[in-house]
Amino acid sequence: MMTETTFKEELTDILLAHGNRWMTIRELAEAVNLRGRYWKKGPISSDSV
User: Fold this and answer.
1) Strand, helix or coil at 10?
2) Burial (CB count within 10 angstroms: exposed 0-12, middle 13-18, buried 19+), residue 10
3) pLDDT tens sequence across 1-49
4) What's the pTM value of the predicted model, to 2 decimals?
């Protein structure tokens, strides 16, 4: 079961899952949307990161 999470928690989890390597804003936005755990009035765009 997927649970909702805060944006900060989601970004932290994504960065840790990727070995804490540098990621572009676009990569982060895509990862947030793929995981589907954070949702706020629609998909996240790179402008939101």
Assistant:
1) helix
2) buried
3) 456 788 899 999 999 999 999 999 999 999 998 988 877 766 677 777 6
4) 0.72
DSSP code, position 4: -
Considering the domain boundaries, does residue 44 fall inside one?
yes
Cα gap 34→40, rounded to integer Å: 14
Q: Containing H/E element for 30?
A: helix 25-35
| Domain range for 30 | 7-48
Q: Answer yes or no: is 2 within a domain.
A: no
Assess if residue 14 is contained within a domain.
Answer: yes
Question: CA 45 to CA 3: how far, in whole Å?
Answer: 21
